Amino acid sequence: MESKAFQLIPTEVIKAWTQGEYYVGDIPSISYHHLGNALLLRGWYTYDDEDESRPDWAGVAKVDIRGPVLSMGGLRLFGDHMVFWRTVDSYVRDDKIFWFYKGYNCAPESANGLFDKYLKKDRRPPGSRSPHERFGLEDEDWRGLLLNLATDFDVDVEEAKRLCQGNIDNGMLEFGLSLDPEGFRQGKYHHYGSVVKQQLIGCSRFTKTKV
Predict the structure, then answer these.
(1) Where in the chain are the domains?
(2) How far is CA 28 from CA 10, 18, 20, 96, 177, in A?
(3) pLDDT tens for each residue of 119-153
(4) How far apart (Å, rounded) are the C-alpha atoms in residues 61 and 180?
(5) Would you say 105 and 167 are in contact if contact means Cβ atoms under 8 Å apart?
(6) Among 122, 196, 112, which Cα is nearest to 160's?
């Protein structure tokens, strides 16, 4: 079922379109192509890492249009820290979007209340790392998680930023606009972790999902 949180074409996008905010240079077709990609990509995603040694790098994300910008943000569902992350800048080249993001690493004792809004303490994923199985979550918990992600995430990530006490990750995500042969969109990342103090390079697999 399509949620009202993701209308087919948001009202603010139609308004911006009529005001020429999506017009780029002297070739209108390029602008329409970018806008078409943005509307196609909007929605919820699950992701996990291709590297089996990083099972904690799995979670949910949303792609949405914020004014003239296509942004992505989400949260990791596993691991010792509660990581909320959001892109801060982007550009499109050929068939890829390059997103630059920040991740806010919150110690459990400082952000339990915030995280429990998305996953109740007694309803955490029971151990399944498979996004195809909704990480083992029941339908009710899955719907609540995605709807909060769609409607409240932009406010909540600011709270995570406040609670993380300076533990801020930085990274770049090279996101493919086309599906790979297995039906994923690949996201190649360069990630610098504030907790582990090292750079990680790898690839995540993103799959579009719905309530």
Answers:
(1) 43-209
(2) 20, 13, 10, 19, 20
(3) 876 666 766 667 777 888 888 889 899 999 989 99
(4) 19
(5) yes
(6) 112
